[in-house]
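Try it yourself: sequence plus molybdenum atom, in.
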Amino acid sequence: MNNKIAPSWNKFTDKDVTPEQVFLDRRRILKQLGFVGAGSLLSSTANAGALDFLFGEKEQAAFARSALQHTKNTQYDALYTGTLTPEDKVISHNNFYEFGTAKTDPKRNAQEFKVNPWELVIDGEVDNPIKLDYDQLFKIAPLEERIYNFRCVEAWSMVIPWLGITLADLIKAAKPNSRAKYVAFETLYDPKQMPGQASRFMGGGIDYPYVEGLRIDEAMHPLTFVAVGLYGKTLPPQNGAPIRLVVPWKYGFKSIKSITRIRLVEKQPPTTWNILASNEYGFYANVNPEVDHPRWSQASERRIGEGGILSAKRIPTQMFNGYADEVASLYKGMDLRRNY
Ligand SMILES: Nc1nc2c(c(=O)[nH]1)N[C@H]1C(S)=C(S)[C@@H](COP(=O)(O)O)O[C@H]1N2
Ligand SMILES: [Mo]
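Structure, out:
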């Protein structure tokens, strides 16, 4: 469809130093200038106005996150590599093209995003189609914390403590029937709130809404997670509030954010990055160090938040992102070079 438009992340491959490595955090600048201490300065309109040269108005209206009750599921802890990525990195280095294509855009542009009220519909090949409102998203099953490796196709990675439930628990509530062979996901479509949907340039040439899909056995796998939080609190909008997918053995673009619809279907559904550049991004998108992206190697990755300014600490990328023992059997007999 849009094969002639080069995906915007051409410009943002791992060769680039991320802006947050180069610029001091603005809060820290404020601190150094003596503005911050109590944090109360920012609630005064007069002072906030005086600080506009450092803080955009939107950044002053920081999205409120709530603590979430949860238990820790340590079952998969042996599979993550290295140490947790600091929270401030997880919530400031993002891909969420609905809010802009640069890594710092989502945090800057999403702070006023409204997640409540929300409606998530689960329908299609199911016996019990359901609609969940905002509060119900947190009550389908007890919330667990799971620490997972997270690997973007651009060859950067993080280790993130997510809060959520299995996708299987969510989907079972709708009672899929025997024709349900795939699961199709859709992100909210709301150009008034999502500037990348209102401008083809700002949105990286994607035809919105962003869509993703899984085979039913991938969707029902116990590793496949839907997150409603991270680091103990509800998700910030830049990470996909109020609810997003997390498939730890696949490249990050499969982990669709701010989901409004989950549809059980018979046929393999279209997926956003495959539509944009089918020779570069497949339906499966399993992390595989032996199958390079046409324009860069997938053999290693850069850990966000490790290695300090300008030093690009790289670690080897693992087959299925470290989850091969859990998921390799799903792909038995498949040619992983063809089904990238
Ligand atoms: N709706 C939507 N979901 C999305 C994206 C996006 O642009 N829009 N980007 C994907 C990509 S490429 C990655 S790497 C992850 C990034 O998740 P994070 O910002 O929470 O690290 O979100 C994925 N989900
Ligand atoms: Mo990504």
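One thing you can check immediately is this: The CA atoms of residues 89 and 305 lie 6 Å apart.
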